[in-house]
Input
Amino acid sequence: MTWYVLRRLVISLLVLLGISAVVFFLLHLVSDSPGRVVLGQRASPEAVAAFNRDNGFDRPVVVQYVSYLGRLAQGDLGRSYKLNENVGTLLWQNAGRSAMLSLAGLVLALVIAVPLGILQAVRRNSLVDRAATALSYVLYATPSFLLGLVLIAVFSQALPVFPAEASQSHSPWVVFTEPRSMALPVITLAVTSVAIFSQYQRSAALDQLGQDYVRVARAKGLPERLILTRHLLRNACLPLITLVGTLVPTLLAGNLIVESLFNYPGLGLLFLNSLQREDYPVLLAYTLVGGVLTVAGNFVADLVVAAADRRIELRK
Output
């Protein structure tokens, strides 16, 4: 396990290094003169050149990238062009709210999807299974912004149950302290995940129902409920654990749409505002956060699956 963890850590660092290089050079191609972005289109060429020279932006792009890696190794993500604030501070201020929103959406999706997938597997090809599968395909094909607009139209305008705008509190615990104002963002974020998770859970449960240990348990006369909860559930959830790890960056992207739609102050809204302002240090840092979450999600998922299923051999 120790060698496996070390090897995965080295691979993860190389992947993150590659992500940072690709994003850095792409942003440099989009705008090779940060001075023009910061000072505006009306700034004189002399002022732009002086700004770029004072901040090292006139050096070759490879030298700039190496310098950026040096600052990154010290925990310095740069400084926002437009807000004149440390990028790390901006991310930290918004990360908690986005994390709680993602966590709430993920938990809600799993609470619904796991029992639903097992129910579909147990009642394969029944009316319940066919209806749930059809609904899952429809929800999966529905864009998040369209789903959010439908929820707003139904539950905020036609039936004024929930507010159309999310809470503007800066507390990361607002999802739990103000559930009414956060209901629609959480539901919007969870619904698409339910559509994916339930179908994976159904396939995994169907595979496990055909295994010998299930047949033996039934032959011994164990109650069906006990077979499903004590024997089948653990093994059927292993593929879902891997899927959740790979979908961590998808949750981050979903936050971008949901936070924009419901005006929720988090990382997604910060990214969109930075994109409109051409605030490239923030965009670069946000992309790196997505890369870190992708690598970490896959890494943790592999460890959890290996710990849950002793049949898996970790290659050194």
The first helix runs from residue 2 to 30. The radius of gyration is 24 Å.
